[in-house]
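assembly run, all chains below
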Amino acid sequence: MAFERVGVVGLGTMGAGIAEVFARAGLRVIGVEADAEALARGRGHLERSTGKAVDKGRLEPGQRDEILGRVTLTTSREDLRDVDLVVEAIPEILDYKIALFKDLDRICEPRTVLATNSSSLSVTAIAAATGRPGQVVGMHFFNPAPVMRLVEVVGTVVSAPGVVADVAALAGRLGKTPVAVGDRAGFVVNRLLLPYLNQAAVLMELGVAGRDDIDAAMKLGVGLPMGPFTLLDLIGLDTAYEVMGVLFDETRDRRHAPAPLLRELVTAGLLGRKSGRGFYGDSPREEPAKSRLGTFGVIGGDGPAEQARAAGGGGPAEGPRAAGAGGGGLAERLRAAGFKESEDPDVVLCLADRPVIEHAVRLPDPARMVGVHLVGDQVAELASTVLTSEEAASAARDLVKIAGLTPVPCKDRAGFVVDALLFPYLNDAVRMHESGYASIDDIDAAMRLGCGYPAGPFEMLESLGLAKVRDGLRALYAEYREPAFAPAPLLDQLVTAGVSRFPRP
Ligand SMILES: NC(=O)c1ccc[n+]([C@@H]2O[C@H](COP(=O)([O-])OP(=O)(O)OC[C@H]3O[C@@H](n4cnc5c(N)ncnc54)[C@H](O)[C@@H]3O)[C@@H](O)[C@H]2O)c1
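ok done. output:
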């Protein structure tokens, strides 16, 4: 099927970008908005986005004129009469979409393919509302559409032969990488991404760590392009909230229940970038006061309880005894920065392999103990227990900053911040593959190209070590008793079998 004239309905965060992608590839585009005001906003998105490309030297001014010249903007759906394809990008509410598709079915020629850019809604339900269910598919672009390379092409049990392949070929012509999948809430990317973003909001609500610290941990520690709250603001909190609701309705998994904080922000009209304020947009956080600090001790590594006991009355009797590269690295960095190890240290950093509090209660002065977990080579999570003094917490922050690391203060909870967010996401990916929904390579490609992640979940699992992730999941399960945190059977079995890579065909 040849697609030359396409319609895009809804020119908001996604639709304007999708219209631009089609026009850049030489297709003629009719963009439809709800009213004149929204149309003007849509035109503004298109002009700004292509204008920026010119400013950055990625587009010649003449090319920009040609692209904009291929786009016709209208508030009348009737103008879509003779297009080959319509991509819908209106809000993520099933009733709105069904009403729109019924109307498009009436307006467009029977050969026209109708596609939804929905992030999570049932394509089957939308298709079934039309008189052409075989011609209705999902064509799910990622934000920002002109940049992200992935398009999920969603077929249903009633898709006509060849339609998914034709739409996938079109995605290829747009310079995108298509991944063809079946119709499940959230498809590949949002089924894995949104629960992680939602869990970040839950951790913040529980007071495990703050917004900026969680964002810094995931960006600098894991190497993601941005932290979860920055991404939620980019996606739009209303869209994220709706997607979570759809996931929950399908799975009844309590982790998919939208975080109450999301509902509150959405109700307040704080939707993220598109409304000017969401998680961000307030005044910047004040830096905590600096502490006075001279000495430190490090305990932990193998046999931490024994080492803590050996630390006796005044801290680590034999100086830093951190085991493992991370611990050794921290002590070295601190020594290089001129700090002294002391038997009466200002602060005891505990390289914890289990709850920090279990180590702290063995010290004569547990108020001085802060748990440390190094993530990558830039981030140190600093876990305060219920007994940690504010002075010790602040001293630990200063220490790791001086050591050239970004401190992420958090509560003493299993997985602290990074593992608590990362490991369940990796586990979900294994379960998704185990269920037969998508291949390892498709899942990895989808997360890399749809989210700009440096590696897909299976690549991350293999580089972290399957046993480490399995054990971390066990600890999370033991702490939160959340069934979805129990290691996926495939992961568990590979670790038991001593295998370090996932089998691929
Ligand atoms: N935001 C993201 O990161 C993202 C990513 C991928 C997919 N999606 C999906 O794309 C769709 C749109 O999301 P968005 O974030 O662009 O929303 P948005 O709120 O930014 O834009 C929606 C646009 O649709 C317009 N609209 C509403 N009703 C309309 C109608 N009846 N006819 C024409 N236009 C209408 C609105 O005026 C608005 O401009 C949703 O299904 C969402 O799940 C969003």
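The CA atoms of residues 54 and 60 lie 6 Å apart.

The longest strand covers residues 369-375.

not gonna interpret more than that til we talk
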